[in-house]
Design a protein that fits this description.
Elements: H1 7-12, E1 15-20, E2 27-33, H2 35-58, H3 62-65, H4 67-107, H5 117-121, H6 139-146, E3 150-152, E4 167-169, E5 175-178, E6 188-192, E7 198-200, E8 205-213, E9 217-224, E10 228-238, E11 245-246, E12 251-255, E13 267-273, E14 276-278
Antiparallel strand pairs: 1-2, 3-4, 5-6, 6-13, 7-12, 8-9, 8-11, 9-10, 10-12, 10-13, 13-14
Length: 286
C-alpha cells in the first residue's frame, strides 16, 4: 500500500504534458509543470484582471459603472461656476461703486455715502515728473516740444507704466487759481483763462460724458488709453457728443462759468487713472 503524500508533495510533484499527433503519435511538444506553478499563474492572472478592472472602473468605465461619477462631475462644475460667479460679482460691485463715485465727483456731490476711489488703492500717491535725459539726436525735438503747449509724462512707478511716454496737450493756457486737494474734496485744478477760450483734449480718446449738472454746469469727460479719464467742468458750451472720438489738441468745449460751484469764468480740470484721482499739475503744464 502506497503511503499518502502530503499537500506540499502534491504541489511540488512534477508532471509533464505531452502533445502528440493523433494519426502517427508523433510527439509535437511537451510542457513540464507542477500544481504549485499552476496555482501561482492562476493567482497572478486573477490579480492582474482584478487590478485592471478596478482601474478601468475608476477611470474609463466610471461614467457607466460608478453611480457617483456623475454626481462628482456635477459638483466640480457647480464649484467652478460658483467661483466664477463670486469673482464676477465682486468685479461688478467694484465697477458699480467706482461708477457711482465717479458720477458724484462729476456732479460735485461729496455728501454722505461718497468714497474717494483713490482711497481704495491706499498707496496711490501721485508721482512727480522726472527729468528726461534725451540723446543728442533727440535734442532738437525736445527743444521744439518744450516750446509747444504739450508736456511729457515720464513716471518711474510701475502703477503708472501705461502713462509713460504719453504727451499731453494743455487744455487751456492760464494760471492755476485752486490746486488739487483731496482733503478738501477738490479732485482737480481750477485754471483761469481768457473769456471764450477753447478747451482742448489733452490726448486722443473717446467722449464718455457730455452733459449738464447743477453744481458743475456743462461737463465733458474723455476716456483715453491706459484707463485714463480727463474731465472738464464749468464750460460755457460743449462741442462734442458722447461717443465722439477726439484727437489730442482738438477743441471739445468753450471756457465758461456754468454751475452753482463756479464763481467766475474758469476751467475745472480733473485726471482719473484706474479709479484714482491724480494731481493734473504732475502731468500737464498749464
Amino acid at each position: 500500500m502506497k503511503p499518502k503524500r502530503t499537500l506540499s508533495e502534491r504541489l511540488t510533484a512534477k508532471y509533464q504534458l505531452v502533445i502528440r499527433n493523433e494519426e502517427n503519435l508523433e510527439e509535437k511538444s511537451t510542457f513540464g509543470f507542477t500544481y504549485a506553478k499552476i496555482l501561482v499563474v492562476v493567482a497572478v492572472f486573477f490579480l492582474v484582471v482584478f487590478g485592471l478592472s478596478l482601474l478601468l472602473a475608476q477611470t474609463l468605465l466610471a461614467r457607466w459603472f460608478d453611480p457617483r461619477h456623475a454626481q462628482r462631475e456635477a459638483n466640480q462644475k457647480l464649484y467652478a461656476l460658483a467661483v466664477k460667479v463670486d469673482s464676477l460679482a465682486i468685479e461688478v460691485d467694484q465697477k458699480d461703486k467706482f461708477i457711482k463715485n465717479f458720477q458724484r465727483v462729476l456732479s460735485g456731490d461729496t455728501s454722505d455715502g461718497f468714497e474717494d476711489p483713490a482711497k481704495a488703492l491706499g498707496n496711490a500717491v501721485p508721482v512727480k515728473t522726472a527729468n528726461l535725459k534725451l540723446s543728442a539726436a533727440d535734442s532738437s525735438f525736445r527743444k521744439e516740444f518744450e516750446q509747444s503747449e504739450m508736456s511729457a509724462v515720464s513716471l518711474t512707478s510701475s502703477k503708472f507704466r501705461e502713462l509713460q511716454e504719453i504727451f499731453f496737450f494743455s487744455p487751456i493756457s492760464g494760471f492755476v487759481s485752486a490746486k488739487y486737494d483731496v482733503k478738501k474734496g477738490h479732485y482737480g485744478v481750477d485754471i483761469v483763462g481768457k473769456k471764450n477760450e477753447p478747451v482742448k483734449a489733452i490726448a486722443d480718446g473717446t467722449v464718455v460724458m457730455a452733459s449738464w449738472t447743477q453744481d458743475s454746469g456743462y461737463v465733458i469727460a474723455v476716456q483715453h488709453r491706459g484707463n485714463l479719464v480727463s474731465v472738464y467742468k464749468h464750460n460755457a458750451e460743449l462741442l462734442k457728443k458722447v461717443g465722439s472720438f477726439v484727437n489730442a489738441g482738438e477743441i471739445i468745449s468753450i471756457v465758461g462759468n456754468s454751475g452753482e460751484l463756479s464763481d467766475g469764468p474758469h476751467l475745472h480740470f480733473e485726471l482719473w487713472y484706474n479709479g484714482s484721482s491724480l494731481d493734473p499739475e504732475d502731468f500737464v503744464t498749464f
